[in-house]
Design goal:
Blueprint (H helix, E strand, L loop, with lengths): L2 H12 L1 E9 L5 H11 L5 H14 L16 H6 L6 E6 L3 E7 L7 H8 L4 E7 L6 H12 L4 E7 L8 H15 L6 E6 L23 H7 L12 E3 L2 E6 L2 E7 L4 E2 L4 E4 L5 E9 L2 E2 L3 E2 L3 E6 L10 E4 L5 E12 L11 E5 L2 E14 L6 E2 L9 E14 L6 H4 E5 L6 E10 L2 H4 L9 H8 L4 E6 L6 H14 L4 E5 H4 L11 H20 L3 E5 L5 H10 L5 E6 L3 H7 L4 H6 L21 E3 L6 H14 L5
Parallel strand pairs: 1-3, 1-4, 4-5, 5-6, 24-26, 24-27, 25-26, 27-28
Antiparallel strand pairs: 2-3, 7-16, 8-9, 9-15, 10-14, 11-12, 11-16, 12-13, 12-15, 17-21, 17-23, 18-19, 18-22, 19-20, 19-21, 22-23
Length: 626
Amino acid sequence: MDAALEAYLAAQEKKSLLRFLTCGSVDDGKSTLIGRLLYDSKLLFEDTLSALEKDSKQHGTTGGDIDFALLVDGLEAEREQGITIDVAYRFFATEKRKFIVADTPGHEQYTRNMATGASNSELAILLVDARKGMLTQTRRHAYIASLLGIRHVVLAVNKIDLVGFSQEVFDRISAEFSNFAAHLGFLSRFAIPISARFGDNVTSKSAKMPWYGGPPLLTFLESVDVESALADKPFRMPVQWVNRPNLDFRGFSGTIVGGRIKPGDTIAVAKSGRTSTVKRIVTMDGELSEASVGEAVTLTLTDEIDISRGDVLCAANARAEVSDQFAAHLLWMSEEELLPGRQYLLKLATSTVSAQVTALKHKVDVNSLEQLAAKTLRLNEIGYANFSLAQPLAFDPYAENRDMGGFILIDRFSNATVGAGMIDFGLRRATNVHWQALDIDKDARAALKHQKPAVLWFTGLSGSGKSTIANQVECALLAQGRHTYLLDGDNVRHGLNRDLGFTDADRVENIRRVAETAKLFVDAGLIVLVSFISPFRSERRMAREMVGEGEFIEVFVDTPLAVCMQRDPKGLYRKATAGEIKNFTGIDSPYEPPEEAELVLHTVGIEPSVQAAAILSYLKDRGYIA
């Protein structure tokens, strides 16, 4: 290889890398700024420039000038609308530094995309249109950037040319942002007046603003110190894969997300506490004498200990916290609102577990940063909540380690990402409560009653006949000497759930409490009958998963809405259609029918006693009753 080329490549490798994002409200010039940086840095090929000039004539919004936004607005929908929808990543370099920039969308509906870009960035350029000043979305993006661990922010007051390069406008916007961001935890805040379209103060100082004494934007980006201290943090490596190609090799593969490791170091498995010593650090390019943050490696150990995907290897003298409950900030990213008590999938590092929000402590007003009482979160809202997990996970606070403290929530049915969270701390009570061993178990209680315990979960619309059939089944079981209990939706709301209303969030909590109660009855060896509308599949699935295999029998009382409205035994449909009752299932609140119920009962023209007899036959045929 040519010596000059070798020297050039070596110099490039030694350059520091800055990951930053552009954010702010819609049409504040984020894409234009990135296009200008690429253009002025002489990083565009001739064919790219020719294509840009052609596209500017067809899709541009700058008259006869080059529209630099088109360099990063690659989607056809973006070009047609003149907005950014997806996150666009671009790489460029100067003599002093390499950069990866994320151009994030400004529209409120794409806030989730902005959060994606922020999660991998070290610095944020927050653009503000000099004519409009600080907007709600500007504040939201600044707050999200702070939550996602960005500690350096540049306030770029763009389109300063449209206000006559006014220092007064710049000073007013800078002061407003400074007051807002004072409590957001940024290590550095720097304001620069720019015109992205014409290049003023972007890569070189503008003669049109002699009152500005600071550096141009690119010079600032080349010099700002954002070096991560993760290499000096305790060692962390979530296990992605147990590498066992043959009987002579067993290694644990993953990417190091904290600290450094070398052969001879003692490591611990976070959850089990088992320790061992690192024997080798293996990579595709050979063995290493030391590995650090960001490197993907395979570790072999001197001892045979139980380690699987999802475990976290830690420094033995500084283990990650392990808990099944924690408090976290949460950005909601779904059109469907957050429902505390509903089961979601929580993915943290290489682990995925079932989880639920047990308490939504507050949501945040992004304009004032005021903490507001809330029962749910809607799209793009930010809150603070307690989480409960189906099993303990290893984690660090997000402020200490993004990879070990950041998680996403996933809808269990659609697999869509619905939320992004940042762990604040583990809840101490989670480590102080343990299962107490008891001598008498469920099997012993059931054997005494000569029956197999189970939950008969009756679901259907109001007026479908659930309670009538459930009552007749219990009467028949009692006549046979069986031990039962009937939980009815109306009756439970007079006591256990008297504090709950009929919003979606309250309905979820209503079913969660009833499911927990039913679980206790099953543990007592009873056959428990639950008669609830229970409109959501997710909560019925949650109830099923609380008990053992074969202990949950879903009974769908399938009666058409028209028939239920005609019956209307309590006059509720009449009130609901008149607007006197809100959130009534079947009228202005949805009902999600079961897809795989064990029993489906059609009640039109069939007496409840016949339906009850069918259920008793089902129980007898499957050994629940002798």
